[in-house]
Design brief:
By secondary structure, the protein is mainly α. The chain contains 3 helices and no strands. α1 packs antiparallel against α2, α1 runs parallel beside α3 and α2 runs antiparallel to α3.
Length: 107
């Protein structure tokens, strides 16, 4: 039985050092928000506007995900590590999701 002292365990990472985890979470939430909104639009157009209350709940979930993505995106600017272009992209995606939902609310 060998004992290795001073040797660190190998850590597995799903992202490199250029992407902060807050940025990754923001990107996922913003993308899912846009996907939910576009999916609801397609479903509503296919049904001719006769939709159930579930679509409203999905749009509310989309709003919450867009706001959460925006919060994580803005918070990721406080961390020094990471690429600023990726951080800006996630904030812009979250704002696009919010503007899309605002347009739907106005119409």
């Amino acid at each position: 039985m060998r004992i290795f002292r001073g040797r660190k365990r190998k850590k597995y990472r799903f992202t490199d050092d250029m992407v902060v985890t807050d940025t990754l979470i923001s990107f996922i939430f913003a993308t899912m928000s846009i996907a939910f909104t576009v999916g609801c639009l397609i479903y509503s157009a296919a049904k001719g506007g006769k939709i159930s209350d579930r679509i409203g709940v999905l749009l509310l979930m989309s709003l919450i995900m867009a706001l959460t993505g925006l919060g994580f995106g803005l918070y990721s600017f406080r961390v020094v590590e990471g690429d600023n272009n990726t951080k800006r992209m996630t904030v812009i995606l979250s704002i696009v999701a919010l503007v899309l939902l605002l347009i739907l609310f106005i119409l």
